[in-house]
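Two records follow; treat each independently.
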Amino acid sequence: MKMDQKAIATLLELAAKSLLSNEPAAIHALEELPRDLFVPLFIEAFLGGHKKIVKAMVKAWPFHCLHIGALSVQESYYEILEAMIGGLQILPDQNSSSWGPKLRILDLRQDPDCGTTCSEISTTFPFCFQSCVYSQHSILKTEEAQHNVKCLGIVNSESEPPSTQKPVELLVDLSFNGTLRTKQFLSFLQSKVEQSFGSLHLCCRDLQINKISAHKSVLQFLDLGCIDHLELNQAYLNEVTTLLAQMIHLNSISLSNISFKRCKGEDFRTFLIQLGQLHNLQELSLALFCLTDQLHKLLRILPPQLDTLCLSFCGLSNRDITVLSQSSQASHLRLLNLSNNQIFSEVYEPFQTLLEKVSGTLQYLEINNCLITDSTLSAVLPALSHCTHLRVLSFAFNPITMPLLMGLLQHLTCLMELKHVIYPVPVHCYEQWNFPGSLDRQKLAEVQAQLAAMLQVVERDDMNWTTCPE
């Protein structure tokens, strides 16, 4: 009688938990441990914070790759990551067997869609779906070069060193946030890279930097060509341009608090030239980045396939909205954030035209704190109702009345993909609109109850209407 997969998995978990109850025995047993037990044992050891076992398991890992994937721990996070890195065989071990460790790719990034290890496929090189493909120091590029050299007969057995350490790849997402523990972890990483004498390739995919002036020295040990997501807060525009010149494979950029003198200056022109070289760019977010009447210059150099555009606190004008509605990017946008721009202070027609242009693709729309009034929202409502793929709408902190809010709900319930709406507190709930401390929470509770009842009547319990009170 065959056992089902669920029952087998349960037995493996029980066996793993039993091993962890005796840490020294578990570490000693790794030499004879069946391959099927490694993954469940690692999961239990990682979640339980068993740093010594995790380190030993990395050293004895029988697969090409190891991913944290969906695993997470609240306490001792850096400690367990350092234990895993400490288990990597980045230098030749004279006491180890001749075949050396099998683990070649250690992935410390959290990804809910990634398993602990990839399915093994018979290929010339170690296979992993997450392998670095850009850097010349990556395993794929290094071993491909070595394979080609051997095929050409350039290297023979006499000239080849008898014990060459195979390259190892370490995948990470890094945040330079200035905390002491983060600095210690970065210093630990840097020392490991230096000790490896080139056999450890540190591949950072997602980099977050807060105040670049404090982290310039740390940036020097990163291979910036690997980075595909950059989030940068507080920098001079010329510093951003210097980084972009080295991060040629970026597909997502988020910049905030970037200092520059004027949009007509040399720094801005150089920035645009470099930004235009990022042909893989799909997501761009700018905040506190003055673009008044200058958006056309930015859109001119951005790739047409851009699907995310966030321009909060950018001082956008109606002219900028008109330019955006006429751009090649508009018909591809899935996410658009125009919050904290007074784009409705004069006329609404440019935004109405923009909604018509994005209606075929738009899924997320944020227009918080844009001085949207009842008359403006009523005018653009027909165009908004044609955004049939819309999933999230956020228009908080705008002076809207309760009658308009109720009418809006009735119109939007026909958008079956729309699940989340973040609406403004109606003006009647304030003694003085949007004035701190003047919100009447009893009135707000009545608003929330009335909207919930309306959703129930039209059988849209799947829609979540929430607000952002002070």
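The next record belongs to a different protein.
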Amino acid sequence: MTEDSQRNFRSVYYEKVGFRGVEEKKSLEILLKDDRLDTEKLCTFSQRFPLPSMYRALVWKVLLGILPPHHESHAKVMMYRKDQYLDVLHALKVIRFVSDATPQVEVYLRMYQLEAGKLPRSPSFPLEPEDEVFLAIAKAMEEMVEDCVDCYWITRCFVNQLNTKYRDSLPQLPKAFEQYLNLEDSRLLSHLKTCSAVSKLPYDLWFKRCFAGCLPESSLQRVWDKVVSGSCKILVFVAVEILLTFKIKVMALNSAEKITKFLENIPQDSSDAIVSKAIDLWHKHCGTPVHSS
């Protein structure tokens, strides 16, 4: 038996007995032992496999630039990050913008606004749409990342990535969604067009909030692994797979309002399967990244 076939046999065996990802976890641990972390290889790994939960926050912090690639600098850099977090929090308390009673996600928003020079004159001012997006992402992130300093920095950098790196791509995603849904199920797309629903689908929930508040965090974090590591296109395939999964229900609805209302509040029990199938669809249409040696 060749080394490759042995590895494949072991992978299939591990998967059957419930140890899916054993070899992938070992591969990641080898990558994380390097004195200087190879961000390209970490990106490739994150694109190909779900990150083990015990390493997710670390890998996200490195890929989002919160931590440098060099291991020996991590403790010192996180100390600076924590000091900055405490300084900004203190400033907000001094000007009475937040208090100990302020919900944590709102604290993160005010910190983000202060650092970006966008703090409104009063906490009672109505929130902007971009603030609502930040809150939705922060609320989901709070369920994924335990430490509040990590949570703030990861949320902040995740939102910045959406607003910079993906700024030109995100508006193109509804069109891509239509294109791939047509390839997967043209009859379903025709039904959406007949109901004048295509332009009224919950694109903001899907593509601006990256499914925060739509999918449970346990499933969502596998989607965000791909977003953090360089692909916002995964969001398109999650949306397509939601439509395919609930095809019978959607085909039975005959108005844009009913379809949109249903898609904004999809049942949560099939979300793991939706994400797994969406990742398969994404690999099918966009290819599988190959490990750089």
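Discussion point: Residues 1-19 have pLDDT under 50 and may be disordered. How would you locate this feature using only the token line?
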